[in-house]
Amino acid sequence: MNASMINPQILGEAADWLVQLHSGTATPSDHQAIALWRNRSAEHAQAWQRAEALLGEFRSVPAHLAIQTLQRAARKEGLSRRQTLTRLGLLLMAGPLGIASQHVPWQQWTADQRTAVGEQKNLQLPDGSQVLLNTESAVDIAFNLHERRLVLLNGEVMINTAKDPGARPFIVETPQGIARALGTRFCVRINGSRSLVSVLEGRVEITPELLQQGTTLNAGERQSFKLNRFDAPESFDSSALAWDKGMLLANNMRLDELLGELSRYRPGVLRCHAEVAGLRVSGAFSLRDTDASLRLLSDTLPLKISSLTRYWLSVEPRV
């Protein structure tokens, strides 16, 4: 059973126990209670395995410190205990967090700047460069006398670089390598085990972590890369890259790919039935109101939206 098949209520209960058992106030009765809860069903046992796996992702710190880090970050955002548990529950629901990234989740929670799901944030860096953080993104800002470095820990950023009097290079670091701006406007996105660089203006040099030789992209080009290799470069219409305006412009896009993009901007699970995954979709869809985008899909295509909760939706063929 994978995480997407577990009842969200049970995952929420697992999140609650996760916090209680590592709060420093857990009693022997609490430990007995969680043992009874865990043995209630295979689904309860699987949910608890997800809870333990989540703590395993925080492998650089002890479990109780990982929980404290999450709670401190939640308090910094003004979240209530219930909201904190909801966020933990969504982490459990999301399944394994992935091993490709060199950065563990607690680094994202304590990053210099970050955004929640569905949030975007404008930043002005010390040199005057403009940065827009996309949904669920995290960055550290590491400027010094020799370089201007932005460390992208998760998500996606759009950057408009400013000229620097000291001629310091502007570098975006990801787990897979670096992108060096050559006076430009560009986007960098972490996508699983790959980084994707899209150049809107100017040029960008990209170099995978394990390669010595980089390559240069011009405006209208994009390329993804892993630690040790490049994917083939592509041309793209920069006007179609509209997430900074809160829009997703689809041109003959597969439905499952479109829903995958929309799911980045809403909490919970958004599933696509295999029978409709290959439908081709064109149009403009709001990223700021994903419910409206889903209604548009169901109004214009032979689809229906089924919901277990607001955070658990499935797009299925209309019978």
Sheet bearing the most strands, described? 12 strands, mixed
Give me the Rg, rounded.
21 Å
Helix-strand makeup class: alpha+beta
Percent of residues in helices: 25-40%
List how many beta strands DSSP finds: 17
Tell me the strand percentage band: 25-35%
Mean pLDDT comes to: 82
The level 1 CATH classification of the largest domain is Mainly Beta
Quaternary class: single chain
Fold-level CATH name of the largest domain: Jelly Rolls
Count of separate structural domains: 3
Tell the overall outline. Answer: globular
CATH architecture of the largest domain: Sandwich
H and E order: HHHHHHEEEEEEEEEEEEEHEEHEE
With helices defined by DSSP (H or I, 4 residues minimum), what is the helix count? 8
Distance between the termini: 28 Å
Unreliable spans: 94-104
